[in-house]
Amino acid sequence: MKFLSSLCISALVLAVSSCSENTSSETKETKTEFTLDYEKFVLDNGLEVILHKDTSDPIVAVATMVHVGSNREKPGKTGFAHFFEHMSFNDSENVPVGANRKMIPEWGGSRNGGTWSDGTVYYEVVPKDAFEKILWIDSDRLGYMINTVTEAALEREKQVVKNEKRQRVDNSPYGYTDEIIRKNLYPEGHPYSWTVIGALPDLQAATLEDVKEFYKAYYGAANASLVIAGDINIQKTKELVQQWFGEIPSGPEVPMLEAQPVTLSETKSLYFEDNFAKLPELRMVFPSVEEYNKDVYALEILGQLLSGSKKAPLYTKIVEENKLAPNVGTYQSSNEIAGEFIIRVRANEGVSLNDVKNAVVEGLTDFEENGFTDNELQRIKAEQETQLYYGVSTVLNKAFQLVQDNEFGNDPGFITKRAKFIQEVSREDIMRVYNTYLKDKNYVMTSVVPNGAKELAVANATEATVWQEEITAMKANEEVAQGEEAEYEKTPSKYDRSEPEYGDAPLFKMPEIWQAETSNGMNIYGIENNELPLVTFSITIDGGHRLDTKDKAGLATFTADLMNEGTATKTPAELEEAIGLLGSSLRISGGLEGITISGSCLTRNFEETLAIVEEMLLQPRWDEKEFNRLKQETETNLKGREANPTAIASINFNKLVYGDDHIYGVPVSGTLASNKNFTLEDVKEFYTTVSPKASNFHVAGNISKSRVQDALKGLSDTWKGEEITIPKQQLPEINPESVVYFIDVPDAKQSVLYIGNLALSANDPNAAKLGFANEILGGGSSGRLFQTLRIQKGYTYGAYSRIPNRTDVAPFTISSSVRANATLASLKIIRDMVNAYGSGFTEEDVALTKNKIIKQNTRNYESLNAKLNILEAISQYNKPIDYINKEQEMLQKMTLDDFKSVIDTYMPEETFVYVVVGDKATQFSEVKKFGKKVIELDIYGNPVQ
């Protein structure tokens, strides 16, 4: 579950192309109005239901949106809408305790929920055979959960929500900024004057009566919308919806909220010294308009014009000319009753935010005087056309779009109107909204600076205050458990409300893959999929960080980044514009094991997009000015990374398990020291390793094999290169003694745990088996780590284990962020759980794992990116074309002894490296009681004497 600043996933468009399922990719596209097909009906109890049929995959998405967010709360009871969302996932009258979080993943599905200022949404995607089971769970949650709530469940969920706040807000750099802005932008008592997650004292004070009162006021059928999208029979679905949801009470009438935009009588400037921040950040927030107001569309385009390109005035003044920050963001954020236009700059280390503010003013003045070109406006609208398709490219995204627009826009098909409104935005509209909401208007400005660096704040700013939790020893009311189930009399129903049976089992069908090879030795892998006029592609080039040296670590990533900054014939701004005018996206990035060129485009623009790829790949600009700017940007990002406890834990875990001699022990982006070591000549030298003989081209979408081959001829004829030798890295001997490494982040409200050791390579025959064996332990919310540390104990927001795919040996890793005063207890639980895992693995666990993974495959490869991932796995790890089928067959043949053998071989707790990043003052002495050797490190991994 999560709290959202907005759920609106709307993608906007000028004019779009239609393409039916059976349309050949060679068919000429025609411009037409975009629509999203649906059928809507209303039950007698007021529940509005929208159905969308999509038979492209044997899956179904269900989204239930309740029209209640934090804007319905009362002062002193903040955070309640989000808290209630958590409570709703526990159990209900006809659904067993824990079914939401445990059973849905076991059916092969995924599930979650979200709360934001205006609403709460619950959603699932499942194989179609579990569709009615989801209706059973969703209807019971909406209509029959309140009687099952107990004091024990209430107290446990309080701890979970508090852990979420600690993780997202208290233990995160700039985490308090939203609270500061809301308190000062909105008047006291305004529904947006408090944060969605609320205040911890308010959460702790919540009672059972509060929960029941909130449910009765807002969780009626007439205050909700339900969307079902996917492989469904419309008539049968209507009958099932009537059966499962028709008896839910309507609930009291919930009055609609009128728009409550705010006006500031003066500009407010505030500063805050952040315990975690390493870089100063400036935000300027202007009151604007609510969602579905027509001015929103011009404001969104205004945001892109001000900072969304290298020609944009704020980017030019802040990044290019004054070199104050690596980037700048300007954007419109609208909610149900009010909106904000935000300017946000995270500056370089040590930069005065006075200088940043002055540069913002200069940029806005430039915009007023010089405006923008027609090309810039055309680029933004072309990009939005492509975004529109990606915004509805999965059944879950379609469900989100339909349910959002129905509940808040009173029209599930509002996307068509939105496209029209964007088309109608004119130059005059953009300047009008600029003058109405920004020019000479008052705003709230925050200067968030590192602790002890008040001098970097804007001059004369007032200190902001926020409530901060004190770390204490674990209190009695923080030790929680499942507790007794509630005693109640079930609500009568004319239907059998017990768990329904599975429907007909869906069959996973591996997509058809075609292969080819270019004349220069590059392999091609493709999947043709004609659902939407989109193409997603990548070129992967072996090498990457594996070709870095330790003293110049990060060079591969830096080289890739610099290749995005213009070509021999195009400046960075001109290159960006050329890509944007096609509505395409292109990015060259460096990774652990290679460099990747990633792209997406409309089918009609594939050849033109690939021509730009060819230019970027073969004619890099190597501009000294961009080299220096990118060096500064990298340095800023690396410094910012030091503020993130999770990043600190991950980086040091890798350093410890891979040792000093393996390049994987150094971050892909390098370090502050290594970043200073390489020159532009080093970049040019590294570029010689970018060879077609070490490359593979992957493409998925609405395009044929012959068209791809034709489009690649130019690149094949001109891109030459030699065979590349990847140096063999020396892996360290695994230490037979398990050691705990503690890293101090003062006043951390949580401890970040990274635990594990080196296991195996993705090329190892046992790689898939280890993935299967991990499912029961840490594979999502149904895993034992999550179920124990979050559901039973309330120590964390989440706990997982995983094994990444790597050509070289990868580590098996367990990770979690736990409440600070539960650090020792969590370490003991994880240790004991891993030690007992192999011996306690049962035949029931074997059957559950097989069912779960095979069912998951029906939904795992729906999107174009997921299909692209299939192709990349085949090329990178030399997998057979039908590897998913073969791995499923392997799974089906695995016995209990096979599972136990894999667990014992690759999860030996006695050799695990434990990394704990937390507050030394309160937790170091506790960790020493764990019974293992404890070594203290600084954030860079150096021993502390």
Automatic annotation (TrEMBL):
InterPro entries: Metalloenz_LuxS/M16 (IPR011249), Pept_M16_N (IPR011765), Peptidase_M16 (IPR050626), Peptidase_M16_C (IPR007863). Residues 488-500 have a biased composition (Basic and acidic residues). Residues 478-500 are annotated as: Disordered. GO terms for biological process: proteolysis. Pfam families: Peptidase_M16 (PF00675), Peptidase_M16_C (PF05193). The keyword Signal applies. Keywords: Hydrolase, Metalloprotease, Protease, Signal, Zinc. Residues 49-173, 531-648 form the Peptidase M16 N-terminal domain. Belongs to the peptidase M16 family. This is Peptidase M16.
